[in-house]
Amino acid sequence: MANPVQLMNRLFLLACAPFLGGLLWLFTMQTNVAVPQLHSSLAGGGNAAGTGIGGISAKLEQAQDAAGQTKSVIEKFYQMYEQSSVVTAELLKTAALQAARPAAVYDMRVTAKLGTPIKQASSGNIELKLFNLDGDRYNGYALKVNLKTDKAMKMVLGKDKLGSSETTLDAARRYGAVAGVNAGGFADDNTGRYPLNTTVLAGKYLTGFFPSRNDETFIGISTSRKLIGGKFSKQEDLDKLSPAFGSTFVPVLLKGGVKQPIPAQWQTSPARAARTVVGNYKHDQLLFIVTDGYDESGNSGATLAELQDKMVSLGIKDAYNLDGGGSSTLVWEGQVINRPSDGKLRPLATHYLFFR
User: Fold this and answer.
1) Which of 45, 209, 212, 230 is least enclosed by beta carbons within 10 angstroms?
2) What is the pTM of this model?
3) For the chain, what percent of residues have pLDDT higher than 90?
4) Is residue 18, in this structure, part of any structural domain at all?
5) What residue stretches are annotated with the Phosphodiester glycosidase domain (predicted)?
6) How does DSSP classify residue 136?
7) Can you list the pairs that 102-111 forms with residues at least 24 positions away whose Cβ atoms lie under 8 Å?
8) Tens-place pLDDT, residues 163-213
9) Do residue 101 and residue 187 come from a single domain?
10) What is the pLDDT, as a whole number, of residue 31?
11) Could you tell me the residue range of the domain that residue 77 belongs to?
């Protein structure tokens, strides 16, 4: 079966055939326009002059007829060209719709697995759909995100200052974002709250590159609006993925739809918790999952293994764990959707925001 590109090429050649045929005929047709030669003869007398004038008139009429025929050919040529252009445009439009159809069908299938959206927003920049997500032992939410332009999503610092922090709700309200999710981990010292290790903001390394250690994982979005992530020992390896922004946490959950080993510490400390994870589908749309946890004791919420299973069942390709526990936050239209396990929102160093 021909792929969409081959189909479009064939349709284009079919539509252009009349135009090409007309062009070939125009170049090969023989249209001779004779230029009359004028002869004057003083000795020929009036009859000779009359005969010469009559011959010239006949030649001019022939030239006019030939010019008229050439004009007619050119007009017909352009009519064919305009008709072919209209047909070609319609065929290319149809081919583009057919080429986009498999992606639309796939999107309908993955959305159907999530159920009916409880909230949604759409614009030229972004399409957002929010779903309830209930497991056997946890409750949560799924935010499906289609990034249409570079303006759809960004990562911001707490109060836009390194070392500062604020809640995801405050950051979303300050920026006028339609939705927001907590981002990477952080480390505190006596001067403030700082993003954990490798952090990219607006395409630049905020505090330098830090080789991955202890299962640390960089999670971000590339300049082509694709989810990127993993462990990196050298900056040039991460640079090849063209990160636009991103943060660091632990661990990698899925690669190519295959569950990755969960570090022992993250299987038990805590076993259950409020979680925030992010994954992507094969058509590069994103899925953020945020689960509730009622406290920090480890007895409520979801395990990472449960979320791996859930994402595999939803058709997720790659997935990563973001900061969880009291940091897990999902904001929609200026309201907190999930139930923070601290009992209140935690001020954070980094946030992912989404814009109409």
Assistant:
1) 45
2) 0.76
3) 69
4) yes
5) 175-354
6) S
7) 103/283, 106/281, 106/282, 106/283, 107/283, 107/285, 109/315, 110/281, 110/285, 110/314, 110/315, 111/144
8) 999 999 999 999 999 999 999 999 999 999 999 999 999 999 999 999 999
9) no
10) 46
11) 4-105
